[in-house]
Amino acid sequence: MSTGLAFSYESRAQRVVFGAGTARTDLAAEIERLGCARVLVVAAHAERELAEELTSVLPVVATFLDVRQHVPLETATAARALAGTSGADSVLSIGGGSTTGTAKAIAMTTGLPIIAVPTTYAGSEATAVWGLTDAGRKSTGTDPAVLPRTVIYDPELTLSLPADLTVASGLNAMAHCVDSLWAPNANPMSSAMAVAGIRGLRQALPEVRRDGSNLDARAAALSAAYLAAVAFTTAGSGLHHKICHVLGGTYDLPHAPTHAVVLPYVAAFNVSSAPSAAALLADALGVPDPVSGLVELYASLGAPGSLRELGLSSDDLPEAARLVAEAAPASNPRPVGRDDAALILRHAWAGDRPGSDQLEAHR
Ligand code: NAD
C-alpha cells in the first residue's frame, strides 16, 4: 500500500564544536586538525579586535576586513585576489553572515577549506548556500565547496550583540525554520530540525531579549540557530527566502531585520494551503494558531515591524512584486502570482497585523 511519502535527503559532513570559550581554547587545534598552516582571516572592521585576539597565536598570512553585506561581486573579487597573493591554505571567518559569505565567495573559486566562527544567529556557517550581488541582483546557489569544514560555536561571542540585532538575527533563524517547512526539498529530517529549532528559539529569544548577558539563553539560541540553518540547507529556499533575496539584493535592505519583518506575512499567506506545516508550526510555537503565535512572539520581542521602517520606498513595491513572482518557487503550497506577491509586500511594507484572513480578504 503506498503512502505517497517520497523524498530525497542529503546530509552534509561538517565538524561542529560548540561551547562557551571554545573560540579561545579550540581554534588552533581545529586548524591543525585540518592540516592547515597558512590562514587567511576574514572579519568585518567592527570585529577586527575580536579577530586579532582570537588569532594572535595562529599562523595568519593575511586578513581581509572589507566585508560588505550581501557580498557584492567587487568584494568577492578583492577577497579572492588576497587569497591568491597570500598563498593561504585555509580561510578563517570570524563574524556574522556577511563575513561567512565573504569566506564562501573565496572557497567557491579556490576550493580553500573554511573554518567558521559565527557571532550572530544568521546560520550561513552551516549551509552550502552562497550569495553574491552583482548590479543590484542577488544570486544564490548551492555548492558543497562553500560549506565550512569546521564550525566553532562559542556563545560568549554573541554576548556583545545589541538587543535589536539579537532579535532580528534570532528571527532570521526562525525564518530558516519556518520556511523550510514548505521549501522545495522539505523532508521529514529537515522538518524535525525545523520544529526543534522553532521550539528552541521560541524559548530562548525572550530570555535573551530580557537579559542579553544570560549565557545559557545565548547558548540555547545559538544551538537552535544551528538547527535552523541545517533545516534550511537541506530543505532549500522557500517563498520567504526568495522574497528576502529580492529585498536585500535589489533594494539593499538589511538582511536580518528584513527576514524578521517578512516572515509572519509569508506564514499568513501560506498556512491555509499547507495544513501539515501549519500544524507543526503551531505545535512548535505552543499555540493553536501559528500566525497569531508568531505575532505574539514578535510583540514580546519588540521585533521590527515594517519594510517601510527599514527604508523601502512604496514606489518600489510594484517592481519588487514582479521580481518576487518571477523568483517564487513553483512548489510553494499556494501559487504566487504578481498580485499575490504585491499583497504580501504591501502588508509587510505597511506593517499591518499579519493574519491569514486579511491576506485572504484582499484576493
Ligand atoms: P552581518 O554579518 O552583516 O552583521 C550585522 C552587523 O552585526 C555588522 O555590523 C557586524 O559587524 C555586527 N556584528 C556581528 N556579530 C556581532 C557581535 N557578536 N556583536 C556585535 N556586533 C556584531 O549580519 P548577519 O545577519 O549575521 O548576516 C547577514 C548576511 O548573511 C547576509 O548577507 C545574508 O545573505 C547572509 N546569510 C547567508 C546565509 C546562507 O546560508 N548563505 C544564511 C543567513 C545569512
Explain what you see.
This protein is globular. It contains 15 helices and 8 strands. By secondary structure, the protein is an alpha/beta fold. It is 53% helix and 11% strand. Helix 5 (97-110) links the parallel strand 4 (90-95) and strand 5. The protein has a 6-stranded parallel beta sheet, with helices on both faces. A two-stranded antiparallel ribbon has the order 6-7. It has helices at 22-25, 27-33, 48-55, 73-86, 97-110, 163-180, 188-210, 215-235, 239-251, 255-270, 275-285, 290-301, 317-327, 338-350, 356-361, and strands at 15-18, 39-42, 60-64, 90-95, 114-118, 129-134, 137-142, 150-153. Residues 44, 46-47, 69-70, 95-99, 101, 119-120, 122-124, 127, 129, 131, 157-158, 160-161, 165, 169, 172, 255-256 line the site of nicotinamide-adenine-dinucleotide (NAD).
State the total count of DSSP E strands.
8
Percent strand: 5-15%
Uncertain ranges:
none
What separation lies between the terminal Cα atoms?
39 Å
Strand order of the largest sheet: 1-8-5-4-2-3
Instruction: State the shape.
Output: globular
What composes the largest sheet?
A: 6 strands, parallel
Oligomer: single chain
